[in-house]
């Protein structure tokens, strides 16, 4: 347990909270390509923009480095990782298996509150028209399924690979057709999870990842 003498525990919690803020803010800038692949990470400027100090920002950068979103070069600085399109098939191969397991686990383990959240997300599908808005909803849906799986190790791993996938998606977004159709694929998936249909949920999740993989390869050929 953390010592509480002299307010140490609140201080540690505060640093942890700010590090999480720095992490999510910087992660979102990187995965949406607001910080372009290969661009330098200006720690001081970003710390001011996000409203955190040097220590939380350093913690966030170390975490992002471990997730392959940031690279640190001695004496050169910190940069957003480049996107290697040749890795797309390898990432999709991993995600097909893990997304299926997450959907299967969520169908069996999701709490009543989580099932209500997933049902609410179904109702949002079809209400958006802009591609970027639909991308944000897609992200919200995937992360909600990961949480509902009730396995923090699976959730962490999937978030890692999903973040890498998001960068590829944003890179090809102008060339990817039928974003609304892709988003609509979540409707039967979410219903299957909410209804506890584990194997159907797993099958639908795997097929969803496969469709994305095919769409990117089609964009590469065009």
Automatic annotation (TrEMBL):
Q: Where is the HTH gntR-type domain?
A: 16-83
Q: Which GO terms describe its molecular function?
A: DNA binding; DNA-binding transcription factor activity
Query: Which SMART domains does the entry link to?
Result: FCD (SM00895), HTH_GNTR (SM00345)
PROSITE patterns (alphabetical)? HTH_GNTR
Q: Which UniProt keywords apply?
A: DNA-binding, Transcription, Transcription regulation
InterPro entries cross-referenced by the UniProt entry: GntR_C (IPR011711), TF_FadR/GntR_C (IPR008920), Tscrpt_reg_HTH_GntR (IPR000524), WH-like_DNA-bd_sf (IPR036388), WH_DNA-bd_sf (IPR036390)
- Any Pfam family from its record, for instance, is GntR
PANTHER family per UniProt? TRANSCRIPTIONAL REGULATOR, GNTR FAMILY (PTHR43537), UXU OPERON TRANSCRIPTIONAL REGULATOR (PTHR43537:SF5)
Name assigned to this protein: GntR family transcriptional regulator
Please name the source species: Amycolatopsis suaedae
């Amino acid at each position: 347990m953390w010592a509480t003498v002299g307010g140490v525990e609140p201080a540690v919690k505060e640093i942890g909270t700010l590090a999480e803020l720095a992490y999510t803010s910087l992660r979102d800038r990187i995965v949406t390509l607001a910080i372009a692949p290969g661009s330098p990470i200006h720690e001081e400027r970003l710390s001011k923009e996000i409203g955190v100090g040097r220590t939380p920002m350093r913690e966030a950068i170390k975490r992002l480095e471990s997730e392959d979103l940031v690279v640190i070069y001695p004496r050169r600085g910190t940069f957003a990782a480049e996107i290697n399109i040749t890795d797309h098939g390898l990432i999709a191969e991993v995600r097909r298996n893990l997304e299926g397991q997450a959907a299967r686990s969520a169908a069996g383990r999701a709490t009543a509150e989580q099932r209500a959240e997933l049902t609410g997300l179904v109702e949002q599908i079809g209400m958006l028209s802009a591609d970027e808005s639909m991308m944000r909803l897609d992200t919200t849906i995937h992360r909600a399924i990961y949480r509902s799986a009730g396995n923090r190790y699976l959730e962490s791993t999937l978030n890692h690979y999903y973040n890498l996938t998001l960068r590829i998606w944003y890179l090809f977004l102008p060339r990817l057709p039928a974003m609304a159709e892709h988003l609509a694929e979540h409707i039967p998936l979410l219903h299957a999870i909410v209804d506890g249909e584990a194997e159907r949920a797993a099958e639908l999740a795997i097929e969803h990842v496969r469709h994305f993989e095919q769409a990117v390869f089609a964009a590469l050929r065009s």
